[in-house]
Amino acid sequence: MASAGDLRKPESLFRLVCRPALPKDTPEVLALTSKIWDGGDYVPEVWNDWMADPEGLLAVAEFGGRVVGISKLSRMGPEDWWLEGLRVHPEYEGRGIASHLHDYMVEHWQRSLNGSLRLVTASFRLPVQHLCERSGFVKAGEFSAFNAPVIDEPVNSFTPVEAAESEQALELIQNSLSMPLSYGMINLGWRWSPPTAAHLAEAISLKQAWWWRKQPETSQGLLTIIEDDEDDDVKNAVVQTMACPVEKMVELLVDFRRLAKGMGYQQAAWLAPLNPLAVQIAAEAGFERGWDASVFLYE
Fold first, then answer.
1. Residue 254 counted as domain residue
2. Cys-Cys link to 214, which of 28, 69, 210, 219 (CB 3.0-4.6 A)?
3. Which residues of 38-67 are buried (b: 16+ CB within 10 A; e: fewer)?
């Protein structure tokens, strides 16, 4: 029961409601996100796509008729889902809104969907980490950004993967001894998922998938990349999938730096798993850690 003092506050009569987002919420969402990361939030760039997504769930938290939080549940594969975009208006932080939104999304997934649910959060966001652990998530990995200058040398060790070779390529990825270093995940732009035929088909269609040191009957490895366009001044090529013998990873990464130069990129990047072996491999390939923090992968 609210005290007499609480009842004199109009906000004490408001009820927090979590619900699917509606087109009419867009102006308030854009106003909310303009206050996140000094106006550098990516959500405005993807909001219309999120609204149009027929799968998963895009939700808002409404308090007193005002949108004060958002969250997105996205399909990453046939049985893989990703929780992202958790935002709370700065004026309403500390009121349990993030917790309510998180629980609403997880309950929807448990009730209506199947498979695995994952998310990442920054290493310094302790409240979100506690929220994940309270709701049954387990920390499955940790990643951070490593960067290297491109190498202005020719490289002939890469051969484009053709669409007809996709099944063979996916088999190589799934059986590669380097994949467990990244917890069996590929990087989909600060989102991680087990590799699927659809992910590989997209990389092939974009001409961002290559065999590495291909021979007539076999190949030593495979590389797929994505482009990071967050920095207007630097064009980054980012490792999406790296599949090869562990002892060959340094050589593949060095060749990747040459490939990136040939494709017109200014920098090569790898969101590397933070385990001692991967960090050592990155250093030997000329990559330096570009971010003091990291992200924790929960599932």
1. yes
2. 219
3. eeebebeeebeebeeeeebbbbbbbbeeeb
Residues 205 and 260 in one domain: yes
pLDDT at 8: 36
Q: Greater confidence, 3 or 166?
A: 166
Dihedral sign for Cα atoms in the order 68, 190, 274, 114: positive
Dig out the tokens for 79 from the structure.
Answer: 């049985």
Is the Cβ–Cβ distance between 269 and 256 less than 8 Å? no
| 6 inside domain | no
Supply the pTM of this predicted model. Answer: 0.90
In a domain, 5, yes or no: no
Strand partners, 224: 209, 241
* Residues of the domain holding 79: 11-137
Report the chain's C-alpha Rg in angstroms. Answer: 22
pLDDT at 2 over 70: no
How many distinct structural domains can be found in the chain? 2
- Token pair for 216: 């007539």
Last residue of a domain, one of 112, 137, 162: 137
Helix (H, G, I), strand (E, B) or coil at 253: helix
pLDDT digits (tens, 9 = 90+) for 17-70: 999 999 999 999 999 999 988 888 999 999 999 999 999 899 999 999 999 999
Residue 164 falls within a domain, yes or no?
Answer: yes
